[in-house]
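User: Just a sanity check before I run the rest of the batch. Below are the structure tokens for the first item. I only need the designed sequence back.
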């Protein structure tokens, strides 16, 4: 995981951390775009967002761009060279590469820029165009190094009784029903469900988010209460699993927010999950009493992943950014919802998690 500064902007520092608000969120539809440039989607999202806020490109202090997995799943050459030429080379331009979690990690970096006083308004960009025709076959090979340890992790949860065998079909069915209501995806339930080895279909997509300080914000309805990331090295040959970083991050977040648990603090939980069963395990690691099955168990009635998860719309790193987007949309639409948590997990030799909590102000 790395962040690279492409162009130098004017530096402003503040003694007191500033509040950060979400002004605009836009997503394209997740689908295979044969013969269509993803640049068209991204360009349309950028300028329609600016128009909706009655802003110009000159009102953006910095751009944070999410890349992912090199030339196979990401389009780094596009994001590094084409985007700066579109938005202007004089702008501060940052690139974040955090594999599957790249989109949400970019939000964390943009939040830090504003909170510290380095920028007043930041635009987060994320886009993916599948570069190979046989991407589905290749994806199964590439992700075997991710799926195998996750399979073992889920199997241990089943054996230890923390994830019930009888719940597996129900989890997939709930995820599918939720995904069908999502206007950004076309949900399809596989004819045969492989609970542990299924790799989602990879689609094209783009996302744009504009956030700002309270000094210049056009809207102060939704603020970012907290944005955190954590990366931990996995010891070769140890009993550590790739999801341990989530428990560590959850403890840190609770300490900073001075709360006893996340379960009583949030109303909506969005998670980047290759497989709905992973989302269930992640929810448990965060201290939530269940995941897709959480509704009705929690006193706070947490709405878990109302978008249905990337089981139906995988497009790294846009899928992780879409977790943030769906949290934003759901928080605005639900009158009884106060806070939404978005989380994305990246699994390699480094275990990384990015987490963002949005809060609706009255």
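Assistant: Here's the designed sequence for the first item:
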């Amino acid at each position: 995981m790395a962040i690279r500064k492409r162009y130098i902007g004017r530096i402003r520092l503040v003694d007191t951390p500033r509040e950060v608000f979400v002004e605009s969120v836009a997503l394209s539809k997740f689908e295979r775009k044969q013969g269509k440039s993803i640049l068209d989607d991204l360009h349309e999202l950028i300028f329609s967002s600016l128009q909706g806020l009655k802003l110009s490109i000159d009102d953006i202090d910095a751009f944070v761009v999410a890349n992912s997995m090199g030339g196979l799943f990401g389009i780094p050459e596009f994001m590094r060279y084409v985007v700066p030429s579109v938005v202007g080379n004089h702008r501060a331009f940052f690139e974040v590469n955090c594999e599957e979690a790249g989109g949400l990690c970019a939000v964390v970096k943009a939040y830090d820029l504003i909170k510290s006083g380095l920028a007043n308004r930041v635009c987060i960009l994320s886009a993916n165009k599948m570069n190979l025709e046989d991407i589905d076959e290749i994806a199964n090979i590439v992700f075997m190094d991710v799926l195998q340890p996750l399979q073992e992790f889920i199997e241990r949860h089943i054996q230890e009784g923390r994830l019930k065998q009888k719940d597996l079909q129900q989890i997939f069915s709930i995820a599918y029903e939720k995904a069908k209501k999502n206007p950004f995806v076309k949900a399809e339930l596989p004819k045969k469900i492989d609970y542990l080895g299924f790799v989602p279909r990879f689609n094209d997509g783009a996302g744009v988010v504009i956030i700002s300080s309270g000094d210049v914000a056009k809207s102060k309805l939704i603020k970012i209460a907290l944005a955190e990331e954590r990366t931990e090295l996995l010891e070769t040959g140890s009993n550590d699993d790739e999801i341990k970083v989530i428990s560590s991050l959850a403890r840190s977040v609770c300490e900073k927010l001075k709360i006893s648990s996340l379960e009583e603090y949030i109303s909506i939980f969005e998670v980047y999950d290759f497989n709905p069963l992973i989302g269930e395990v992640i929810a448990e690691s965060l201290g939530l009493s269940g995941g897709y099955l959480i509704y009705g168990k929690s006193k706070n009635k947490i709405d878990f992943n109302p978008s249905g998860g990337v089981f139906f719309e995988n497009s790294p790193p846009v899928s992780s950014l879409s977790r943030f987007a769906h949290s934003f949309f759901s928080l605005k639409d639900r009158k009884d919802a106060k806070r939404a948590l978005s989380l994305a997990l990246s699994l390699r030799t480094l275990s990384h998690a990015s987490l963002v909590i949005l809060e609706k102000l009255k």
